[in-house]
TrEMBL record, chain A:
UniProt keyword list: Biotin, Lipid degradation, Lipid metabolism, Magnesium, Manganese
Annotated PANTHER family: OXALOACETATE DECARBOXYLASE ALPHA CHAIN
GO terms, biological process: lipid catabolic process
InterPro entries: Biotin_BS, Biotin_Carboxyl_Carrier/Decarb, Biotin_lipoyl, PCC_BT, Single_hybrid_motif
Highest taxon in the source lineage: Bacteria
Keyword hit for Magnesium: yes
Molecular function terms, GO-annotated: propionyl-CoA carboxylase activity
PROSITE patterns listed in its UniProt record: BIOTIN, BIOTINYL_LIPOYL
Pathway: Metabolic intermediate metabolism; propanoyl-CoA degradation; succinyl-CoA from propanoyl-CoA: step 1/3
EC code: 6.4.1.3
Organism, as annotated: Deferribacter autotrophicus
Protein name: propionyl-CoA carboxylase
Acyltransferase in keyword set: no
Catalysed reactions, semicolon-separated: propanoyl-CoA + hydrogencarbonate + ATP = (S)-methylmalonyl-CoA + ADP + phosphate + H(+)
From TrEMBL, chain B:
Protein name (record): Acetyl-CoA carboxylase biotin carboxylase subunit
Enzyme class: ligase
UniProt cross-references to NCBIfam families, sorted A to Z: accC, PRK08591.1
GO molecular function: ATP binding; biotin carboxylase activity; metal ion binding
InterPro entries attached to this UniProt entry: Acetyl_CoA_COase_biotin_COase, ATP-grasp, BC-like_N, Biotin_carboxylase_complex, Biotin_carboxylation_dom, Biotin_COase_C, CPAse_ATP-bd, PreATP-grasp_dom_sf
Originating species: Deferribacter autotrophicus
Ranges of residues in domain Biotin carboxylation: 3-447
Amino acid sequence: MPVKRDYYVTVEGREEEIKVDLEEKEPFLYEVEIDDQKYNVDFAQINEVVYSLIIDGKSYAIEISENGNNFEVIVDGDNYKVEVLDEMKRFMKMRASAALEGRQVIEAQMPGYIWKRLKDVGDEVEEGETVMILVAMKMENEIKSPKKGVITEIFVEASEDPNESTVAIGDKLFIVE
Amino acid sequence: MPEIKKVLVANRGEIAIRVFRTCRKMGIETVAIYTHADRKAPHVRYADEAYCITDSPADTSYLKMDRIIDIAKKTGAAIHPGYGFYAENADFARACADSGIIFIGPSPEHIELMGSKTGARKAMMEAGVPVVPGTEDPVKDLEEARKVADEIGYPIMLKAVHGGGGKGMRLVEKPEDLESAFRTAQSEALNAFGSSEVYIEKFIVQPHHVEIQVIGDKHGNALHLFERECSIQRRHQKVIEEAPSPFITDETRAKMYEVAVKAVKKLGYYSAGTLEFIVGADQNFYFLEMNTRLQVEHPVTELITGVDLVNQMIRVAAGQELMYKQEDIQRRGHAIECRIYAEDPTNNFAPSPGLITVYEEPGGPNVRVDSGAYQGYEVPLYYDPMIAKLCTVGKDREYAIRNMRRALSEYKIAGIKTSIPFHIRVLKNETFLSGNYDTGFIDNKFDMEDLKRRENEDVTVPVIAAAIKQFLSEKIAAERAVTRPDVGESTWKRSGKLYNICNRLA
């Protein structure tokens, strides 16, 4: 039995949301409708990240990394960050972002260890001011505040010993409000 | 004449495997050393023998000189240092000699001489190699500065004698600007380094980094293996190298070969080495420094000449003559190398260590991959971010570049970010394609924002791909929820869940 789904898709750097109607005709064969344009798609997973995608007969070898509703899609070396939400999740996200307006959680963008902390909880920071220094592969990376505000929470300790202050990608570093 | 039956590589990663490959081809046994962080590294499994050099799990360094010498002595191995770590350490080369171990590299004296900026400059001047015109000693006053500047010609650079990192440097383009620049440079130097002494160097306009690969033996033979153009650099780190240089003329290259070989013979240098030159827009070239080791970019030379440089280094270290005469060395086609770093080019090249979940190397004709990575390998946080070198060759530059673009598109690495998207962009850049690029290319001619910009702004493909992937993830989650008998959940509750899921998907 064909299964239909509707999604709201946003691509990083683009303001408009793209409405996608998707119908599974057979396993791995789909009809996708975007802006009244219909596409016949054959979708096959090759390994953990590599996929074969045939859209109306045109073949693409692409890479997809998934993190919840967020995807990173690489097409011919071009990198796209894509978020896919259904109606319910879209509504929940809008409500959550309204509630958290003004509060920003800063997460580690790379694995490494926190070598130095330059600010404490309660400190005021300017936009672009360095809050801590993360060391990865012998390089110091300044972790800056994305906005002017007050540091309300810090989640990591600093240490010169890499084993004592290691962070992974996505680990929370601090909150500025 | 000593015979080399076993070789220990005092290094890790791709260069260790590179040396081992030649050893295996020559029937020489191999010894790897490793740290706790590198227990699962491919060089450890490639070698015939492997020894841990660290005493504690926290220790992550390959700089355990006594331990390395000890292992070499016990195993009866000669030592090849690769590049980095001990490759240009005269004390290490001397310690090998003192312990009766063959060091596969130049003499400690040559390493020491070329390691000293002033010593190397002086030795090269004596050997007839042009060096960047300027004063070797600090200039006394403005009058002397004016005299020197007039002699070497503008533009000139004023540099703090005790400076570094660009501080205390002043570019002077015309005579009337000299006085104020001289005073400023002096006061900056005093403030920053506690001494107002400055010296003068000719400023090279649109500089190119061109280097000549040389090799000599202990019998007085020396030859060159053509040049490499290494001007594509980021933060003074080479990123792409190619041979031959698309910039220098045949006349310039002939002159460079001649002075390089003459210098190697005059110095009595043996082993592989590289003379690095800065070449101006006017084709004048000046000696920068000599690398007394096998370089990262040596495959480019191997691809256009067919000479195995490691093989020749081992022969020379064993006291044999070079296998080739200059006339045997023929250049065939054009080669290019892209260094694949574990870095995120879209996030200001932030380091990206971690687990490689997917690893597929490119293949096909005229492609060479020197790699220290594999699927399931965890790129350690502690070492240099270079994980592989991708090289291609073609009948000319255009074919080598096309082949490289093809190979880059086939290279699939997931789990970590790599510099592959950056290389793809550079290889499409007009200035790069013209071959008329200099060391300022990445800063001046390459727009970093270009990495985030897409060639094709039609986002249909990524949108369809992500939507289908989301659909499949939901489907799998739904199937799991139905088939998994969760503890404590009643049949009624599971039936209800199934009903809801079916409704949602229908």
